[in-house]
Amino acid sequence: MAAAAAACALSRKRQLQPAGKAMRRGGRRSGPGGEAEEEEELEREHFRRIINAFRYYGINMHERVNRAERQFRSLPAIQQKLLPQFLPHLDKIRKCIDHNQGILQTVVNDCTHMFENKEYGDDENGKITPASTFDMDKLKSTLKQFVRDWSETGKPERDSCYQPIINEIVKNFPKDRWDLSKVNILVPGAGLGRLAWEIAMLGYTCQGNEWSLFMLFSSNFVLNRCSETNSYKLYPWIHQFSNNKRSADQIQPVYFPDVDPHSLPPDANFSMTAGDFQEIYSECNIWDCIATCFFIDTAHNVIDYIDTIWKILKPGGIWINLGPLLYHFENLANELSIELSYEDIKSVILQYGFHIEVENESVLTTYTVNELSMMKYYYECVMFVVRKPGSSV
Known about the structure:
Layout: E1 15-16, H1 34-73, H2 77-80, H3 86-108, H4 133-150, H5 155-161, H6 163-172, E2 184-188, H7 194-201, E3 205-210, H8 213-225, E4 232-234, H9 247-250, E5 254-256, E6 270-274, H10 277-280, E7 287-293, H11 302-312, E8 313-323, H12 342-352, E9 355-365, E10 379-387
Parallel strand pairs: 2-3, 2-7, 3-6, 7-8
Antiparallel strand pairs: 1-6, 4-5, 8-10, 9-10
Helix pairs in contact: 1-3, 4-8, 11-12
């Protein structure tokens, strides 16, 4: 039984066009008058909070290293003498922190003006205040996203989870049967934009969508400010004080970008949107393909995602998914979180009317893995390709 009876509203997309153009941001739906103003103010506060987290990074990390030094100095002198390189290693970490802070400051330097349809005001001289542990964890995770999406170090990870999706796109939309520039592909949860960029490099019209400002600030920097390969470096592993085989592994640099993001063909059609996937994509029968990678478990209710995908896919269009089910809101007491098994998700997909064409329940991959670490997490992901029937209701 198909479940596509609900009518579609007009699309509310706000675009980011890479390569020097400002992005457009789609906010949440809000009511007239005071409600709209209140919503705008909340968005400005959120924007400034994330900017503050970027600026607070160095303070936060130096406090962590200072704590390690205090604890080391509390040891008996005879034990300290056994580790003559411990304090010099902490000094090396401090230099890495300062370098990372410089990159993060560069990332946010023009963020207050990055949206062509929103103006958040320049808070450059604003006081840096302590950021929450949650925001600092997000920021440190974002540093590892540079590795995943835009470094040579991240290539094995990209090959394991992006390449199967790309292969399915090429198989379903071959250039000898399709005008690739007229094949519209959407990548929700695009992160720093590499998967969407790779799809556009092949000649397809591709749009990435991302909600997180941590990701949006960083993708804006890579896509619009980086033009020489490996021209920047980060130290993404300095936050990891456990499971290091060698001290030097903690301060190993990673260079980015491994390709020139501006090397897209002149006629390439690549863009990104900033905002909530469900709220800014509501126009029916628009997309030939929707590609989701490590995305569907970001939902409060994954059925809402399935509903949106069903509506916005063209009849005959395909949805390609690869990822685990590590539900992001599972342990947040004040957030709705519906945690479905893959079996349940598959049942819902079939009830909507999708036809399963490819299904693999054992795709082994990682997510922002540190190959130098003594501890690594592996995901046994599900990958599927489902098609919306050509004569959907």
